[in-house]
């Protein structure tokens, strides 16, 4: 939708053929809300945003109280939750009720209102990132020209939430956890964005739908004997960038082996030490949303987005499989890899990944030059 | 492979309205959860309950502790490199188009960016040599620093 990016509210213009139909537009079309001008557009956008937010909340609900426990238990040869429902799946409901009905204890030295705002910032910023992610099956909220820059910028807001939580809790552990979180996020933000830029060199656009389309329209190679044409997903075109991006992403969302900010053995729980009740839920939820947002970015720019074998209507299934694969990888690393030390973490970031990401950018520029 | 749906009769809508709507939903969901929790949670205030958690000990001193100067050093370094990545964005977007057009030579495309990145990497090398990205020093390094004129 290149024509609709003017700052003023566009009049009802018919869509050009070949453009992607976004979720608010489909809802506007199906319910007739598209006929009501700006009010209808706002309402359709709100419904679409509610759907997208709830898909991701549902994923987080499954991941946090249930899947995480089950996966870790499988790695460490235990059973984990198994009393409520098949495979203990109803623990999700029980945990939601349990956590929300806990007393909210606010520490006496808390710096309000920063203390109260931090959980909202952490959870809200993670949700906002999903606005530009094409999830397949027509579930794509918005497709601005600056899509990739937007999603990096929004994911970066979480750092502010983390430092707010750490500073405002009035606890030494929280303070140190918040500082570490920011030092880590800023050290790995640069390699993350620069590696993401190497994808832009291939695609020539920041628009998410175009990045996905370019990956799936190009055929990398065909497997002889079979009828398979392997699409040019950037993870296959440039595996080096893919690995760099994965590592930087794990550091960015603070997962093992980079879970320094909340290293339980030395910092209790880092910036979330003093949070209880619903505020703890929001901080925890925000972390899981960030893992999924990282997975969604990886799926979109390296794994062909919602594309996969079968009809295009199955897109959402492939998309969810890909982000769950990234989630599974984080849980695998959590069970398998020891935590790195804070000094190693900063040195890996600034001396290793940063230099490698610039090398990758130069290498990719050279490859694109040879191909073009 | 078709990812979206084609339907030329659909009214086109503004992207930023949809993003704003998700920002609103992203605010309303946490607030809604807080409201639900407010309705069902107990409140039994006690002063000792609100004490800062320090592994069960009586908390000592304030929280505004001194911390490692390196946090400040890497933040400064980040500012420089973050602005650099912002300036790399437009170059990356036009790179493919510029290569395919005959109007610009390869030198014109690559030259400025190579110089720009090289200057910043030189800066990183300088910061590296001066220990800005080194978190901790071994006793021997501290010794060597003290002896340096």
UniProtKB/TrEMBL annotation, chain A:
Topological relation to the membrane, as annotated: Multi-pass membrane protein
Segments crossing the lipid bilayer: 41-63, 117-140, 146-165, 228-251, 281-303, 315-333, 353-371
Compartment list: Membrane
InterPro entries in the cross-refs: NADH_UbQ_OxRdtase_su1/FPO
An example molecular function term from Gene Ontology annotations: NADH dehydrogenase activity
Main location: membrane
Highest taxon above the source species: Archaea
GO aspect biological process, one term: aerobic respiration
Family matches, as Pfam families: NADHdh
Example of a GO cellular component annotation carried by this entry: membrane
Keywords: Membrane, Transmembrane, Transmembrane helix
HAMAP family, per database record: NDH1_NuoH
UniProt protein name: NADH-quinone oxidoreductase subunit H
Annotated source species: Salinadaptatus halalkaliphilus
């Amino acid at each position: 939708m290149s024509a609709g990016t003017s700052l003023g509210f566009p009049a009802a213009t018919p869509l050009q053929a070949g453009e992607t139909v976004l979720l608010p537009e489909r809802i506007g079309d199906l319910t007739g809300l598209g006929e009501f001008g700006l009010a209808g557009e706002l309402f359709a956008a709100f419904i679409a945003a509610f759907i997208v937010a709830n898909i991701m909340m549902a994923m987080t609900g499954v991941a946090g109280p249930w899947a995480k426990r089950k996966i870790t238990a499988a790695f460490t040869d235990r059973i984990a939750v198994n009393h409520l429902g098949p495979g203990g799946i109803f623990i999700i409901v029980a945990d939601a009720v349990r956590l929300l009905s806990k007393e909210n204890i606010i520490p006496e030295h808390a710096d309000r209102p920063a203390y109260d705002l931090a959980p909202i910032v952490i959870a809200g910023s993670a949700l906002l990132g999903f606005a530009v992610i094409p999830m397949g099956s027509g579930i794509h909220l918005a497709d601005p020209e600056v899509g990739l820059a937007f999603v990096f910028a929004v994911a970066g807001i979480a750092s502010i939430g983390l430092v707010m939580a750490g500073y405002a809790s009035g606890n030494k552990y929280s303070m140190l956890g918040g500082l570490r979180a920011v030092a880590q996020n800023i050290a790995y933000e640069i390699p993350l964005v620069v590696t993401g830029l190497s994808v832009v060199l291939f695609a020539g656009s920041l628009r998410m739908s175009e990045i996905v389309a370019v990956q799936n329209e190009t055929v990398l190679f065909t497997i002889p004997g079979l009828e398979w044409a392997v699409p040019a997903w950037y993870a296959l075109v440039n595996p080096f960038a893919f690995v760099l991006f994965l590592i930087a992403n794990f550091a960015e969302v603070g997962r093992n082996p980079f879970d320094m900010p909340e290293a339980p053995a030395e910092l209790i729980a880092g910036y979330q030490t003093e949070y209880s009740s619903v505020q703890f839920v929001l901080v925890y939820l925000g972390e899981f949303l960030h893992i999924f947002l990282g997975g969604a970015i990886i799926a979109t720019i390296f794994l062909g987005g919602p594309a996969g074998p079968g009809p295009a209507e199955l897109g959402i299934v492939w998309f969810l499989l890909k982000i769950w694969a990234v989630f599974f990888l984080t849980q695998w690393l959590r069970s398998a890899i020891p935590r790195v030390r804070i000094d190693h973490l900063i040195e890996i970031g600034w001396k290793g990944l940063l230099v490698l990401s610039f090398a990758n950018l130069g290498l990719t520029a050279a490859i694109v030059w040879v191909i073009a | 492979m078709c990812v979206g749906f084609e339907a030329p009769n659909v009214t086109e809508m503004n992207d930023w309205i949809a993003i704003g709507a998700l920002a609103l939903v992203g605010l309303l969901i946490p607030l809604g959860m807080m409201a639900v929790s407010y309705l069902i949670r107990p409140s039994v205030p006690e002063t000792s309950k609100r004490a800062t958690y320090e592994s069960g000990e009586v908390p000592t001193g304030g929280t505004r502790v001194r911390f490692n100067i390196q946090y400040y050093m890497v933040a400064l370094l980040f500012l420089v490199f973050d602005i650099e990545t912002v300036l790399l964005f437009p170059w990356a977007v036009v790179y493919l188009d510029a290569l395919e057009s005959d109007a610009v030579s390869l030198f014109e495309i690559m030259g400025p960016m190579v110089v720009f990145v090289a200057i910043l990497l030189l800066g990183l090398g300088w910061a590296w040599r001066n220990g800005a990205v080194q978190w901790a020093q071994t006793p021997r390094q501290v010794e060597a620093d003290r002896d340096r004129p």
